[in-house]
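Sequence of Iron compound ABC transporter ATP-binding protein (Hyphomonas hirschiana VP5).
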Amino acid sequence: MADLVIRNLSVSAGKVKLVCEANFSLAQGELVALLGPNGAGKTSLLRSALGLVKRATGDALLDGTDSEKLSSMQRARRVAYLPQQRPLAWPNTVRDVVALGRFAYGAAPGRLSQADSVAVERAIRLCDLTALVDRHTDTLSGGELARVHCARAFAADAPLLVADEPVAALDPRHQYRVMDIIRHYVDGGGGALVVLHDIALAARYATRMVWMKHGHIIADGTPDETLTEDRLAEVYGVRARVSGRSVEIEGTI
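Predicted 3D structure, token representation.
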């Protein structure tokens, strides 16, 4: 079973510590929500865990291998990564953008093997894009484009997904739609680590919640274990009412 394991990982920028001795893991079958205010170190943690940013101390293992020692193609076969910024160099068709997810196998749009084509079509169906495959990406809505990026990631057939704010700037309907797609991926055997700012959305979908503040992981557990009014006050500085997995923000402290 593929996994991502982080042990005592720290990330620095000059003399400033962005992440401090973080420990956590992600395995197939889990949907882990990474939570915390802006500047908490979430993106730095993700990028260092994947070997995209050099860590100051600690270990990050992808399927047992140091993530910093993996080539881009080796990494892409182990984990699909959706960064915060997902620019497209030019407005290709939806099908061609999804096909870019086969980079890990040496493929490119117009040069797909049978296995590549099967993976691309499967990702298109999973993300409900069949009716849009010939549309150019500059004609899509924000919600449609978010699904295209998900499909591009899933086309790699990687056992793990790391997504940094995949529902940012989407309306509630499309937020749920994208999270349903990720949930379906996990139910099918994948493992997902997702940065979210919507606490209620995280509580609805996550099997675990990892909470960060000032570069530290301060809690890691199920929503029932970690989602409390005191934790929301500590992490976000807000008054909130929590009932089961329902959250109502009442104001700042």
